[in-house]
Amino acid sequence: FRHVVPATVILIELEIWPNFLREANKLGIPVAVVNGRITKQSHKSYRIFKGLLPQFNRISLFCSQGPEYTERFLSLFVHPGRVMETGNIKADGLRVGPVDPGQELRNLLGNPDPKGLTLVAGSTHPPEEKYVAEAWLAGLPGARLVIVPRHPKRLAEILKNLSEIGIDPQLLSDLRTGEVPDVTRPAIVDTIGELERVFGLANIAYVGGSLIPHGGQNMLEPAAQGHPVLTGPYLENFTQEARILTRAEAVRIVADTAELTASLAELGADGALRKRMGSAGMEATR
Question: What is the DSSP letter of 56?
């Protein structure tokens, strides 16, 4: 604080640290939370310890993502005049429309069959790679499967899990050094920062962190590109995004691997349904 001498502090979502807030208050520096949200579990914990951690009273303004988060802030005795709903800034920054993956990724990860399909599973968490691969084998075996794990450092674990169901995937890093692409084998993107362009290859998108109790990942990104989206039921960190796409009929929320398999089979066989869901997703994210 002494070196920067800020006029205002803006915190993203809910990165609140008691000593930091205390110092800001001592120096008379207003603090705002933008894109504010509280998960159900965090809200429960804050209610239990609110007497010991009065940091919410030290914040001047809460810009909430949506009504459920507004209610949670207010239930923690935040003054109503300090809370306003401003929506989700992740949605504000979306680029709507198809994304060009580039010729390299088309050659290495795309489906060379002009009539073939590509399933991109993005932001997966353990053991979703195995679940998605099982659903792909049963429901959409002719498609190219591309998996983009949320944390590529889990690669050894992913390879082990897939080997348990008899799958030997290819790695993007190996494809880039000369391995010949094989569309009958899943491809794993073991690099960082390429998910948006890889989604550009998709005919169907699965968004991870959702078939296991993680809380989901951002499903607006593939929807904005015009892809039908599949996701699991654990979406407590992305309830607003799920609501937007559900209302538009641009997403399918599946309960388990069996429902994922059935949805993949249905979408694979129905091009009109894929187009309808994709168009609805682009319209909902404009």
Answer: G
Q: Which helix (H) or strand (E) holds 85?
A: strand 83-85
What's phi and psi for 235, nearest 5 deg? -130, 25
Strands 204-207 and 118-124: parallel
> What's the token pair of residue 213?
């109790």
Q: Which of the 8 DSSP states describes residue 227?
A: -
Please say whether the beta carbons of 123 and 214 come within 8 A: no
* Measured distance CA(250)–CA(240) in Å, rounded: 14
- Residue 104 and residue 176: Cα distance in Å, rounded? 9
Determine what percent of the chain is predicted with pLDDT higher than 70.
Answer: 98
Residue 35: other Cβ atoms inside 10 A: 19
pTM: 0.83
Percent helix, strand and coil across the chain, each to the nearest 5: 45, 15, 40
**CA separation, residue 264 to residues 137, 150, 230, 271 (Å):** 10, 21, 9, 12
Buried/exposed 64-81: b ≥16 CB within 10 Å, e otherwise: bbbebbbebbeebebeee
User: How confident is the model at residue 51, as a pLDDT?
Assistant: 64
Please say whether the dihedral angle defined by the alpha carbons of residues 139, 144, 148 and 149, taken in this order, is positive or negative. Answer: positive
Question: Which tens digits make up the pLDDT trace of 59-69?
Answer: 999 999 888 89
Give the position of tokens 């082990």: 160
The string of pLDDT tens digits covering residues 194-207 is 999 999 999 999 99
